[in-house]
Known about the structure:
Elements (H helix, E strand, L loop, with lengths): L2 E4 L4 E4 L7 E3 L21 E7 L10 E6 L5 E6 L2 E7 L5 E4 L9 E7 L23 E6 L3 E2 L9 E8 L2 E8 L1 E2 L3 E7 L5 E6 L2 E7 L4 E2 L3 E2 L2 E9 L2 E10 L4 E4 L3 E4 L2 E2 L2 E6 L12 H14 L3 E4 L6 H10 L2 E5 L11 H15 L5 E8 L8 H17 L4 E7 L7 H4 L3 E5 L11 H12 L5 E5 L20 H16 L6 E4 L5 E8 L2 E5 L13 H10 L5 E3 L6 E2 L3 E8 L3 E6 L2 E7 L2 E8 L5 E8 L2 E9 L18 H7 L15 H4 L3 H18 L3 H10 L2 H10 L5 H12 L6
Parallel strand pairs: 25-26, 25-32, 26-27, 27-28, 28-29, 29-30, 30-31, 36-42
Antiparallel strand pairs: 1-10, 2-3, 2-4, 4-9, 5-8, 5-10, 6-7, 6-9, 11-14, 12-13, 13-17, 15-16, 15-20, 18-19, 20-21, 22-23, 23-24, 33-34, 35-37, 37-40, 38-39, 38-41, 41-42
Amino acid sequence: MRRYMDLCEGWRFRKSDEEEWENISLPHTWNNIDGQDGGNDFLRSRCCYEINLPEVHLEKGERLYAEFEAVAFIADVHINGKHVCHHENGFATFRCDLTDSLADENILTVYADNRRTDYTYPQFADFTFFGGIYRPARLVAVSSSHFSLDDYGSPGIRTWSEVKDGRGYLKYEAAVEGEGRCVISLYDRENRCVAESEGTSGVICADDPHLWNGKKDPYLYTLCARLYKGDVLEDEVSVTAAFRSFRIDPEKGFILNGEEYPLRGVCRHQDRLDKGWAVSNADHEEDISLILEMGANTVRLAHYQQAQYVYDLCDRYGLVVWAEIPYISGHLVRGVDNTLLMMRELVLQNMHHPSIICWGLSNEISMFGLSDEVYENHRLLNDLCHELDHTRLTAVAELGELDGNDYLVSLPDIRSYNHYFGWYLGNVEDNVKWLDDYHASRPGMPAGLSEYGAEASVFLHSASPVRGDYSEEYQAEYHERMMEIISTRPFIWATHVWNMFDFAADRRNEGGCAGRNNKGLVTYDRKTRKDSFYVYKAWLSDEPFVYVNGKRFTDRCADETPVKVYSNQKHIDLYINGRFFSRQEGSHVFSFMIPLEKTGETRVTAVSGSLSDTTVLIRRREENPSYRLDDRASLTNWFDSADDSLSSYDPSCFSIRDDMKTLCSNAEAESEVRNYLMKCADEIGISFSQLWNVVLSHDLKKAYSLMGTACIKGVEEQFFSLNERLQKIKKH
């Protein structure tokens, strides 16, 4: 029988051969601090882990494997100095057969490598690439006949479930090493065997199955595969199983088990403050608990395969999942095989999870331009998904600027868009026109919002919030309006807020917080639910609650001030310093204008039945300066400032205001632009050809934007130095 031995304690770690060994336990990353402090200077290296294996007594014919749930990004495994495994996917489970290299005493060595390459993903993205053995590891001993441990990290059995005419059909294929009789049993929640079959492949039928019905009723079965030699049980594996049907209607959105089930939720990165990706199961549980508390019923697990335990939790609690690989932000010419490996491992390791309804092919891949090679890579991925799993859909998270007629839009089964109207560009109302125009022009092509959001710091506040001020109030107002827009458009098949939690992006230095993307509805340490969290709770949660927002916006400098209450109740009674002030009937958002005491505190309490919540405000003569950033620190959109900074220029000469066609019409001007972009490409860490294609499709401000987003020092100086050189070249 299969035996498992934990392998998380007793490791030694060092960053280089010159350093002393450090005793550590798994999960572990060497970037937990430098990956979140800004400056884009986190260590990207090939570091070494080593452990003395415990004594393992193997019976005749048994084999011993080391199993790693994830090593970022490239892993090389040695046993007693002999290389036994190479793996190029920092997010998936892989196993190494150690058997033939075992000795009386054994040392296991793992090299984890998060350095740049031109053939593995991701290489350029808005999050930190933490290195290390950041998920658990263990030893697995199996008999000579066993369910395969070499099937791309899969559990050794593949399953597909469908519901037709009231019956549940569970197709299975078991990968068996050696020989034996394979018995497949299906158990219900009460551990009763409800169906059984024999053979390494077949179909189990269940009459009137209990359906997995999202958060309403996430009913799970267990599929158990056993391998016998005669009457002796040689091996056994179990996976989650369930029955459900779903489809996407171009007018009604997501349909689960024949009923409309609007998908409204969030995206999730896996890292945490001071931990990076080296998080525990308890951390995963807390994340899912917060998502559920908010009322979400779907989660986009971005931008990579996440821990098996996360998918287990989504199964258990009924969260509908978008699962994807990190084919992101730009195509690597030599990276095609890597994308196919990542997708194969994602699908085969997770296809038994009923929570997953789509496989994400890529995210914002058009950022650095499109080509026949990009299209072909997507076609290969799309075909692979359908070959491995015909029961689920393929999806792409499209860059908002992508032409709706592009091949990349029509290729996958479904698509969603990353739109930031109201943050990076335009205003929140622009979402209305875009969504309605898209739906009217493509009525049979469902689309969703795979990303939308605005940044906020819990330390920054404003009574008159505006785009780009990073105030908690602007983020809340943005999400208030987005929920109004979304709720009246059922044709949007799914919406995913970017992001559920603040996360590390070591390139960034925005909102007064270096190394962080602050679009989360919850802070990086998970300790503070921002006001915007309660916007969604008011719309999505069935748990009765009342919340007075602005709790961190204590100091106010006006005779009267706005106060909002978020609630899923039908009326709110507001009390000021214990005295009744006003009642409002309504839903979701209740807005009041209240007077402030001239001196001392104003205690504001919102009541609905037995529910209440209170905040305390203080009248000040002047604004609290800590609530605002200085102008330079609050600069959100680098490209928005480019034109404004040219207070005067000579239009008879070339400038950074000219489009690329104009600039390339003059050899000297084009040469200056090329030299500038070569430096930019080197700073950002991408190829010149990629950046050149992006700028050709947009303008020079796109390069300026990318430099700013990447936190490259001297962005303005470099950009305007280019302008000075262009201004010396006369147009003819």
